């Protein structure tokens, strides 16, 4: 590769070379010793950038050099006091997430930055800060920890949080980013138990997540599941927010609860239970519970279409897991778990090869309710004691009518005989 070509990926200035060197080390592409070696080589090669030398010695590739250049340019436009941005690790419709170094504590963090176009919308800014405040109320090993929120001198709103090394469940499941993995029952149980425990923590503090889905669950290399993105989180008792959102469907179509689709005002913890059940369904079957060509069609199925039992798709599933999912995903929230802790207890029971008692009770009660709703009640008279067969008034009347008819017929026969 020519010097002119590599100069397109990095500036030859010493300040940029210094930033390139830091980025390469922070990203784990080369060690400090290797970078210093290339800096020494650079002294003997006039007008060549550090990136050129790193490429020449195969420490980085041309594409990596280009990405580093792009990230350095993004850093210049997003300066946050006290933090040094390392690289971009994610981008969504609402924000960009950077890996960064918190200078004061010398630790790696993740920083979510609201784009400038969103910063001009008070509703987005308000929601952004609510996410930070909601996360700050929680302290649990399976929930990404909030660290700080603020606005930079150049008016970028940011939210600093714990940095998690790992992939989202969505990335693990979905090719090409993932490997198309379908989780075993044991693996799915382990992840969902951790999420249920995190939700118990949140729900007992009056907070509902409202967007539980595979994209919002990060799995570390050690198998620790972390719940993230509290952008739609809301306090159950926040009546003002609930009324302002009335009639609007907040959530993700594949995993959203029926009451969220309707835009009900009194959303509670059972919406998260439904979404967690839908997430578990996806993990153990390899597909979401409902699918269609449009988001609207998917949500209509959540409202109206019966759920295909997960063990009909994955026949290797235990009955217990299927029961838990079906109760968690009941369309009427009154038929779901009455608390997140009950769900957690059932998950633990199934993992220990025990039946899910709360789900089983819910299924039995539901069956009885259907019988009561559709069946007809018949009064059965008690058996009469021996010798009192005609004790019931109804039977007495029937006997008298029969006797009268018999007498009448006998009389008619008698008259006919006399006429002869």
Question: Which terms summarize this structure?
Answer:
420 residues, alpha+beta, 5-stranded antiparallel sheet, 18 helices, 10 strands, disordered N terminus
Termini distance?
A: 134 Å
Mean pLDDT: 83
What percent of residues are in strands? 5-15%
Total number of helices: 18
Q: What string gives the helices and strands in order?
A: HHHHHEEEHHEEEHHEEEEHHHHHHHHH
| SS-based class | alpha+beta
* Sheet of most strands: 5 strands, antiparallel
By DSSP, the count of extended strands is 10
Low-confidence sequence ranges: 1-12, 374-392
Description:
By secondary structure, the chain is α+β, with helices and mostly antiparallel strands. It has 3 domains: 1-74; 78-163, 2-Layer Sandwich (Phosphorylase Kinase, domain 1); 167-369, Transferase(Phosphotransferase), domain 1 (Orthogonal Bundle), CATH 1.10.510. It contains 18 helices and 10 strands. The strands form 3 sheets. The chain has a 5-stranded antiparallel sheet with strand order 1-2-3-5-4. A 3-stranded antiparallel sheet has the order 6-8-9. A two-stranded antiparallel sheet has the order 7-10. A hairpin with a 4-residue loop joins strand 2 and strand 3 (107-113). Helix 12 runs antiparallel to helix 15. The longest helix has 27 residues, at 393-419. The radius of gyration is 34 Å and the shape is elongated. The chain starts with a helix and ends with a helix. Residues 1-12 and 374-392 have low confidence and may be disordered.
